[in-house]
Amino acid sequence: MTPTELSARLREVVGEAGLVTEPDQLAGYLTDWRDAYRGNAAVVVRPATTAEVAAVVSLCRDAGVALVPQGGNTGLCGGAVPDASGDQVVLSLTRLRRIREVDPANQTITVEAGVVLQQVQQAAAAVDRFFPLSLGAEGSCTIGGNLSTNAGGTGVLRYGTMRDLTLGLEVVLPDGRIWHGLRGLRKDNTGYDLKHLFIGAEGTLGVITAAVLKLYPALHGRATAWIALPSPQAAVDLIEILRARGGDRLTAFEIMSRQSVDFVLRHVPGTRDPFTSPHDWYALVELGDTRTDADLDGLLEAGLAEAFDRGLALDAVVASGSAQVAALWALREGISEAQNHEGPSLKHDVTVPVSSIAALVERTDRALQEAVPGIRIVVYGHIGDGNLHYNLSKPVDGDDEEFRSRADELARIVYDSTSSFDGSISAEHGLGQSKRDVMADYKDPVALDLMRGLKDLLDPVGLMNPGKVLPD
Ligand code: FAD
Ligand code: S2G
Ligand code: ZN
User: Fold this and answer.
1) Percent of the chain at pLDDT above 70?
2) Strands, E, within 113-160: which ranges?
3) Residues in contact with ligand 2 (CB, 6 Å cut-off)
4) Is 150 a domain residue?
5) Could you tell me which residue ranges the FAD-binding PCMH-type domain spans (predicted)?
6) How distant, in Å, are the alpha carbons of 54, 454, 460 from that of 58?
7) Residue 182 contacts residue 211 (beta carbons within 8 Å)
8) Which atom of ligand 1 is nearest to the CA of 203?
């Protein structure tokens, strides 16, 4: 089948509205959010139903054409971007955007893959429920992408990752069949739990077209604090204090280095330092409760008093009112964008056991400074999960291209250090194309073998998102 014939057959399936062929309209689909990865494709196909997705997958399989599934295209590993050949078809799921069912009594919501995360949060709130996945890209990322990257974000501490929030999936397999797994059951021991094959598979094992997600009781009480700390270990100890006092009412705990906050204060309009003098480390902490009369401020203040007594806190402000809460979160959520103003941002998204966090930072910072004196290290993120974002900027007077040329060497430093604490080189962003080549150096060879076996079983011709996740 020639590309022209394929386009004609695809047009028969998805109609004019479902096909993008004009170069100026194609551009947004062919590069990632950070413009770090660029690809090429003659056509982007945008099916509107699961049946159309299945027909598109079957057509491309018959034509021997590879597919690159794409949701909101906010991924940070180049997983949703086609290669440079121009031979691949981008399959955008953004037209599958129905919320099929909300079931407050079963505490579930059934949504299609193209629904934006923020819409799910809003649909849950509309029935006095809570959908806890929350991340900086929530206004653009889609549920299909969240599932395929097993997204984490700021709510993992209390509610887990996307894997933990999912009860059922509907998937179009590489052979075009539809797996109807959309069951909202919290118990179903009828064989292998197949949904977990596709969650985190980054589009390499099939196309997720819908999901049944868990809902939780809405949180009506909230307390938020911004705290200055002497060290990452103090942050780990403070988590212990707040957990001992508040149990699972601790719903978020984010750490930020001084460098992270400096970039935000410099580049994000309207942000300001809550304290009069700078400190090395900060935490943004949130408690939540379903009751409005839970004295969360009091609980937070008691925990902070203990932290001050033990020298774990150097300064703190407990937010009064939603405007101040928003201002504190803006300091945290602005880091990613702010860093883009400082030249190349070499991103690393790692996890270690929480008990190893302090040693990880000490070892990694020292090794990075030895390699590139004056390197600016933006360390921040979901410390309660053991997950830090180690994003590196060049020294103040450094050269962009020279710094970029050191990317592999610097990544090795971060990954070797992480690996020495039995950590993971990708905590929540996945592997995409940016980390697949280092997998062989850090992943158990038997695990890699099993993954390849599953890939061969489900996608023997290798047409689902080739060049992503698994090393050659
Ligand atoms: P895309 O980028 O479109 O695709 C991601 C991967 O999933 C690709 O491999 C693609 O092929 C595959 N895919 C997409 N849809 C489907 C589908 N329906 N079926 C099969 N495969 C599919 N991530 C976090 O985990 N935590 C964070 O805190 C976080 N913060 C972020 C902050 C910012 C400012 C930005 C830009 C990104 C952040 N991310 C974070 C990364 C990103 O938002 C997540 O990985 C998100 O889950 C990607 O969703 P998406 O719809 O944009 O997916
Ligand atoms: C976060 C986002 C992306 C980055 O902000 O929690 O996951 O810049 C990150 O690493
Ligand atoms: Zn993150």
Assistant:
1) 100
2) 129-130
3) 76, 136, 336, 347, 349, 381, 389, 391
4) yes
5) 37-218
6) 6, 20, 14
7) yes
8) 21
Closest CA to 412 of 420, 313, 11: 420
pLDDT of residue 164: 98
The CB-based long-range contact list for 97-105 (8 Å cut-off, 24+ gap) reads 99/123, 100/210, 102/126, 102/127, 102/215, 103/184, 104/128, 104/129, 104/215
CA atoms within 13 A on the CB side of 461: 17
Contact in structure between 91 and 69 (CB atoms under 8 Å): yes
Parent domain of 234: 221-336
- One domain for residues 87 and 132: no
- Please give the distance, rounded to the nearest whole angstrom, from the Cα atom of residue 402 to the centre of ligand 3: 27
Name the domain count of the chain. Answer: 4
The radius of gyration of the chain from alpha carbons, rounded to an integer in Å, stands at: 23
Nearest CA to ligand 1 atom 21: 203
User: Taking the model in full, what pTM does it have?
Assistant: 0.97
Ligand nearest to the CA of residue 428, numbered in listed order:
1
Predicted local distance difference test score (pLDDT) of residue 34: 87
Q: Cα–Cα distance between 111 and 106 in angstroms, integer? A: 15
Q: Is the pLDDT of residue 43 over 90?
A: yes
Task: Looking at the structure, tell me whether residues 253 and 313 fall in a common domain.
Answer: yes
What is the number of the ligand closest to the CA of 256? Answer: 2
